[in-house]
User: Which sequence fits this backbone?
């Protein structure tokens, strides 16, 4: 577990288990001879991906960013992704870290792909219940609308039971603004690339800033702006957004949270010059 002090806020990394995904899909046009050194693949070319969530305690609010993969996938998907037989629920994992899941009053989903909002709800005997009953959930309205378009390219990434029941009861609020302050110091920012409407989340206090990069920077290997996943819908925008937001993170010494890295949940970054211009992790 990683606990980070950000001004008056405390940010805790919650690694909610891991799944496995095709390494080629994760690195798009980058040759395996390059990415394979940074993230070794198994015999099926799969690489491990953590479900990284972050809990931000502001003093007045307890904000959960992302809810991991959940338990709604079928047996075939579980086998394909090498998921364990019994999946611990996110409230169980949070409790095990010594934190009280009942205190969570805000949940933010950066987008609605199943691996970011899976523990929003749990389905048992056909009934859907919110996993964080006290919380108001937030995501971007256009992302929720896109989920319902059922586009053949990415319909497989969406499971409606993760969000529709919450939208119906009003427990999930849909954000329209490009920037939105959810509670004092905690903001969402539109950052298209992975898809049209993905959000970044910043938590700023006392001159320090934590930024959750979600799938804009899923692993530390993706700090290089041109190392973009094949499943990003708008790769040129991913490069532009990474350059803009990681540039700001380097200049202002932000702590960057990564969506799926199994080793490094959060890191500060610095700019690199020359042939490999981009960004690299620095230890704080
Ligand atoms: Zn993801």
Assistant:
């Amino acid at each position: 577990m990683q606990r980070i002090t950000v001004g008056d806020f405390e940010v805790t990394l919650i690694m909610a288990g891991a799944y496995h995904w095709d390494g080629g899909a994760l690195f798009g046009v980058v040759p395996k001879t390059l990415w394979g050194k940074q993230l070794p693949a198994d015999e099926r070319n799969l690489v491990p991906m953590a479900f990284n969530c972050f809990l931000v305690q502001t003093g007045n609010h307890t904000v959960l960013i992302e809810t991991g993969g959940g338990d709604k996938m079928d047996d075939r998907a579980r086998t394909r992704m090498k998921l364990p037989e019994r999946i611990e629920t996110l409230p169980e994992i949070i409790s095990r870290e010594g934190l009280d899941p009942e205190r969570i009053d805000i949940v933010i989903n950066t987008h609605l792909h199943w691996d970011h909002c899976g523990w929003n709800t749990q389905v048992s005997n056909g009934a859907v219940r919110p996993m964080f009953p006290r919380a108001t959930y937030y995501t971007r309205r256009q992302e929720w609308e896109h989920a319902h378009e059922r586009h053949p390219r990415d319909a497989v990434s969406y499971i409606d039971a993760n969000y529709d029941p919450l939208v119906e009861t009003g427990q999930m609020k849909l954000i329209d603004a490009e920037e939105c302050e959810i509670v004092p110091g905690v903001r969402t920012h539109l950052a298209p690339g992975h898809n049209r409407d993905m959000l970044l989340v910043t938590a700023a206090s006392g001159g320090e800033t934590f930024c959750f990069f979600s799938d804009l920077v899923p692993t530390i290997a993706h700090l290089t702006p041109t190392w973009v996943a094949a499943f990003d819908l708008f790769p040129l925008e991913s490069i532009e957004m990474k350059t803009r937001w990681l540039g700001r993170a380097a200049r202002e010494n932000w702590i960057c949270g990564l969506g799926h890295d199994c080793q490094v949940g959060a890191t500060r970054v610095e700019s690199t010059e020359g042939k490999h211009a981009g960004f690299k992790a620095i230890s704080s």
Remarks:
- The mean pLDDT is 96.
- DSSP finds eight helices and 16 strands in the chain.
- Residues 38 and 266 are 17 Å apart (CA to CA).
